Amino acid sequence: MRNKTIARRYARALIEIGQETGTSGDIGRELRGISALFSSHTELAGLLLNPMHKLDARTGLIEKVCEGLRVSDVVRRFLVLLVKNRNIGMFQDICSAYYKIEDEIAGRIRAEVEAAIDMDENLKNGIKDKLERLTGKEVVLAVEKNPQLLGGIVVRVGNVVLDGSIKTQLDRVKTRLKEGVA
């Protein structure tokens, strides 16, 4: 929990810098790019986290990464600070917190939809429109196919889960039947 709190503080500081300089969107895009790089090259994150490597070597490495990706000076200095403070291991948590704050400021929410079948654009747009009417916010929809649901959909918005899947309904019937038999 402590790491999440620290991650939110770093994210909030980056947001404030972005708002002051008018570069919040750019910072977010750069963080996404670096996050993708770290995810696809886990050995890079390992090198940055390894205390056996000298601090100068680790900061030099992050400087080269930033140069190669052509990130802004703000993000470069931020990453160097994370390395120096030994908090680079929190980078993904910081990114998640940043995106969440960015969404809050923009009046956006993210919704995940699982469906048993591939959904056409009309259905996706219908779900998105309904969620926007219910929440009063712009909805960014992520749709995933999950054949294990058998039918129906499961919608997740923040901590709220709306489960209209056939699988869940069958599980409920099964539980009721067992209770009735016992």
Q: Which keywords apply here?
A:
alpha+beta, Peroxidase, domain 1, hypothetical protein PF0899 fold, four-stranded mixed sheet, 14% strand
Describe the structure.
The protein folds into two domains: 2-103, Peroxidase, domain 1; 109-181, hypothetical protein PF0899 fold, CATH 3.30.2320.30. Helices cover 65% and strands 14% of the residues. It is built from eight helices and four strands; from the N terminus they run ααααααβαβββα. It has helices at 2-21, 24-40, 42-49, 55-69, 73-84, 91-106, 121-135, 166-181; strands at 108-115, 138-145, 153-157, 160-163. It has a four-stranded mixed β-sheet. The longest helix is centred in the N-terminal third of the chain and has 20 residues, at 2-21. The chain starts with a helix and ends with a helix.
Topology:
Layout: H1 2-21, H2 24-40, H3 42-49, H4 55-69, H5 73-84, H6 91-106, E1 108-115, H7 121-135, E2 138-145, E3 153-157, E4 160-163, H8 166-181
Parallel strand pairs: 1-2
Antiparallel strand pairs: 1-3, 3-4
Summarize this entry quickly.
This protein has helices at 2-21, 24-40, 42-49, 55-69, 73-84, 91-106, 121-135, 166-181, and strands spanning 108-115, 138-145, 153-157, 160-163. With 182 residues, it is α+β, with helices and mostly antiparallel strands.
